[in-house]
# Entry
Amino acid sequence: MTRVLFALPLLAAGLAAPAADDKSAARPLFNGTDFVGWQTAKGDPVTKGWVVKDGAMAREAAGGDIWTKDRFGDFRLELEFKTAGNSGVFIRTDKPTDNVQTGIEIQVDKPGNPGRHSVGALYDLVAPTKDASKKDDWNKMTVTAKGSVITVEVNGEKVNEMDLDKWTEGGKNPDGSKNKFKTALKDFKREGHIGFQDHGAAVSYRNVRITPFK
# Structure
């Protein structure tokens, strides 16, 4: 009896504490019903431009980018997107009102030749190794941020990776090419808001989940 009494708490503790990077620890960022937990760049409720349709958040008219109220540091972000054109997923954005200079964008767009502005790109920074997206269909994207390293998967294929610590100068990539950032990316905050870009095209996002890492 004594051995059983000691074993049960250990088993219960193991079941109650999944590993920090276990997918079972993922939680929804979008409930498929309304915009609870989301806001505009100025912190107002999402009331125009974006609607909830068939369990997805859809940009149907001009409404501006939308952002999580919460901030996240290290995480795995999983989502599905369907788009008629340019959009993007912002991560670790410190100031949504200045997203260009305080956050990193993963490009969402129609299929095209890989480049620093194509789908799966770390925008203006690193081109994807290939275009793994599907036209006029839902695409799954997974973005993992751990410390200085950011990786991107599209439809189950790893297409991009960068180490922020290699970006030591503002306005310049490690290969000497120019970028739009005034601050060296190694000095960017390692936590912030997650956002979806309104760039004028019809785009939808669904099954948005995040697994925060400790």
